[in-house]
Design a protein that fits this description.
eight-stranded mixed β-sheet, 310 residues, single chain, 32% strand
Length: 310
């Protein structure tokens, strides 16, 4: 057995209040408690982003993954022992529950027993009039921008991380966490999925000179929502943004907004779904397919790991 879902990403940041303000503008429900900051999608049970204050620059603390029961957690523990992975004590200020384990590059994972959240309520389908097929008849497809309410993401989907060795990072999540490779582009970027049915990717790894957070990603219902939400947040915060576009690997529409520390928060929709990870056959894509199928020009900062810069 294996981990079943991504629960949360924990960051150390120099200004928790600034981070909470960014995620509030992004459309998440935020709160400050006991010196930390928390952000989640409205109506959801679990926090997705947890911010811990630091006197230093922003740094990835750890990634929290959910195992559905105690048996699955023990299976992951056995996997870690068989792989001779580093099982460690929790960082200062965190509970000694579940399993804490580091990958070969020092990236820390916390595996806890937790139930999956219920799926968000179903929303109206994105109706497209295509050649020979009219799905939207007798009504307009979009309202004036001023009438469109603030976009609130529906659920936490995936996260991408920098790694000095992408394929070794994939091997760790396969051998220890029981995940599967979905697709990759050579040794530059790779996408992994959970067994038992999940989005095309839950954890992704991009080549860099060290570990760090690249982006967190939240699901919205339509490309219109992704586009207008990204535009609005960029205008309100003055942040750099990239989108609207569509990825080749995973097929999802995207719009990214840069957070206060140089990493990114993504709105996404219409991602491929893998019902049986063992039956899926990974593709090794060409480098030119690694980022987009179509999109605006890629910002240079999209490739920068600010956590490794002095």
């Amino acid at each position: 057995m294996a981990v079943s879902f991504l629960k949360a990403v924990y960051l150390e940041v120099p200004d928790v209040a600034e981070g909470l303000e960014f995620y509030k503008e992004f459309g998440l429900e935020t709160r400050a408690e006991d010196g930390r900051g928390y952000a989640r999608c409205y109506g959801r049970e679990y926090d997705s982003i947890v911010l811990t204050p630091t006197k230093n620059k922003k740094r990835l603390s750890h990634v929290e993954m959910g195992a559905l029961n105690a048996s699955e957690l023990e299976d992951v523990r056995r996997r870690a022992e068989n792989a001779k992975a580093d099982i460690v004590a929790p960082p200062a200020g965190f509970e000694d529950n579940g399993l804490w384990v580091r990958n070969p590059h020092g990236m820390l994972f916390h595996i806890v027993v937790a139930e999956r959240e219920a799926p968000p309520p179903e929303e109206g389908a994105f109706e497209i009039n295509s050649v020979g097929r009219l799905n939207r008849v007798g009504k307009a497809g979009v309202e004036p921008k001023r009438k469109i309410p603030p976009v609130k993401p529906k659920q936490f989907g995936h996260s991408a991380f920098f790694s000095p060795d992408v394929l070794e990072s994939v091997k760790f999540v396969e051998d220890v966490l029981g995940m599967r490779l979905a697709d990759r582009a050579q040794d530059v970027i790779a996408f992994t999925t959970c067994v038992g049915g999940s989005d095309h990717h839950v954890l992704a790894f991009a080549k860099s000179d060290g570990v760090g957070l690249h982006h967190v990603s939240f699901q919205v219902n339509t490309p219109d929502e992704a586009g207008i939400a990204g535009e609005r947040v960029a205008e309100k915060t003055g942040s750099q943004n990239w989108g609207l576009g569509r990825h080749t690997i995973g097929s999802n529409f995207f719009h990214y907004v840069q957070d206060p520390w140089g990493s990114w928060a993504e709105y996404y929709c219409d991602m491929d779904y893998i019902p049986d990870a063992d039956a899926w056959k990974p593709t090794n894509y060409a480098i030119e397919d690694s980022f987009t199928n179509w999109a605006p020009e890629l910002p240079d900062e999209m490739l920068v790991n600010f956590e490794t810069m002095s």
